[in-house]
Amino acid sequence: MTPIGFDNSYARDLPDAYVAWQPRAAPAPRLLFFNRALADELGLDAQGLDSLEGVSIFAGNVVPPGAQPLAQAYAGHQFGGFSPQLGDGRAVLLGEIVDRSGRRRDLALKGSGRTPFARGGDGKAAVGPMLREALLGESMHALGVPTSRALAVVATGEPVQREHRLPGAVLTRVAASHLRVGTLQFFAARGQIDTLRQVADYAIARHDPALLGDPDRYVGLLRAVAQRQAALVAQWMNLGFIHGVMNTDNMTLSGETIDYGPCAFIEAYDPHAVFSSIDEAGRYAFGNQPAIARWNLARLAEALLPLIADGGDGDHGRHGDAEVVTRHAIDRVMPVIDAFASWYDAHWRAGQWAKLGLSQSVAAEAAGLADDWLELLHVHVVDFTLGWRRLVDAAAGDEAPLRSLFANTPALAPWLARWRTLSEHDLAASGLSPAERVRRMRVANPAIIARNHQVERALAAATDAADLVPFERLLAALRHPDDEVGEFAAFVEPAPRSFTAAYRTFCGT
Fold first, then answer.
1. pLDDT tens for each residue of 368-382
2. In this structure, are residues 353 and 370 in contact, taking their beta carbons and an 8 Å threshold?
3. E strand or H helix that includes residue 58
4. Is there a contact between 42 and 176 (Cβ–Cβ < 8 Å)?
5. DSSP 3-state assignment of 447?
6. How far is the C-alpha of 153 from the C-alpha of 57, rounded, in Å?
7. What's the pLDDT at 500?
8. Positions of the chain with pLDDT under 50
């Protein structure tokens, strides 16, 4: 059998944080997608895994040597309400591998059958949602966004029942880890402080090893997670990405995007945009994402309070009156929670300046310019991605494509005049060539994103007709987000407004 080389630190170090569990075998597995580039990055034998042997592993029919499959325990706030026990209801962590760069990565199956955390669910997944994870993960990776990624998707050969009978599938997902805010909440809610400390120390060792041995390491962990999430959500906002279900069990400690369920990209710019069918109140609307991230981090801080109150030494109650100790711990975490907004704003503004083709030297003037640009996009119902991309054309000397996006072109003229003046001043001060400026803007303003209508078309073909050609063509385009000519030109244009107005996403469970 093709060796994978597992090293299972989670299973080894956190025996109380999971249930050992075997994936359920699929009756007639068939490979739909295999990520050879990712396999090579992981140091795996891509040729050996792109085979019947690999299909058996990715379907859960064969547990490879060295793997220790398990279902992780976690809790979570779902749409604001706390669920004390969630956990991997349809997933198993096979184990971890250390990739070619020395990074530890999780290898997990999703849709591999019911576990003790299934809460009445069937433990299965459908072809469409699993291929969606592959598309979105590869798109976000190509866009430079930290993300989990699909190594493989296998059709199981058996149906799953949702609103309709759908072909089943299993996803093999790779992540920096599957540790979530909800992982710590699970043990904090139960008062299992020793296990909570073990999990927190494990997270620190895995993601923030510089904090090891630091008596303030739990505040440090909170700060590190907050800073990673500030950077991540800023990237989402600068790309027009809506996660759709920012529950605390979907917020990773690693700062990776995870769980591409009811996600979408906005088209016409609208801070209030919601596509998720289950987000009826708009809690996770596009413009709410930074505030929700802060709220989730406050829940992480609450989970860490017992450890911070102990001073990191595990000597419960050593510091006297429990209420006083807790108040002191709250005083320690609140500066971190309050700093999130400034960390996020710094990342978001830096992204905006890059998209405008401007530098830090004109930051004060660029802030107002960026805000007014977004207002123009909103008022004139301009596609977010194309609006920014056509601004690159304007920087290259051709304003016509940008003007064509505005029905009322005179409204654009005053803003363009301000932008040109500031750009000329910035170029003169920085010494940057106009050509280099345009090149950088193209990187910051992709032409190709995972357009919702293109994604749905590809998934429908794969689901209804077992036709993977549209999926493969879209995947190739998403891996080249800057290439808007030639074979990928068809993936640049937005959907008809009638499609977007009625579009809804679903979690797939």
1. 999 999 999 999 999
2. yes
3. helix 52-59
4. no
5. coil
6. 11
7. 84
8. 316-319
Active site residue 249: yes
Identify the DSSP state of 126. E
Of the candidates 228, 200, 231, 225, the residue with the CA atom closest to the CA atom of residue 214: 200
User: CB 326: neighbour CB atoms within 10 A?
Assistant: 14
- The residue assigned the tokens 């891996």 is 479
Structure confidence at residue 317 (pLDDT): 47
Contact 438, 482 (CB under 8 A): no
Q: Which residues lie across from 167 on neighbouring strands?
A: 159
Owner of token pair 């808007």: 484
Q: Which CB contacts under 8 angstroms, 24+ apart, belong to 418-425?
A: 418/369, 418/372, 419/356, 419/369, 419/373, 422/358, 422/362, 422/365, 422/366, 422/369, 423/356, 423/357, 423/358, 423/395, 425/362
Q: Two tokens at 93?
A: 């962590």
Among the listed residues 249, 259, 279, 426, the single catalytic one is 249
Q: Which residues contact 258 (CB under 8 A, 6 or more apart)?
A: 147, 148, 175, 178, 180, 250, 252
CB 30, CB 155: distance < 8 Å: yes
For residue 360, the model assigns a pLDDT of 85
Tokens of 280: 């009826």
Q: Are 117 and 100 in contact (CB under 8 A)?
A: no
Angle between helical axes of 322-356 and 434-444 (0-180°, round to 10)? 130
Structural element, H or E, at residue 427: helix 413-430
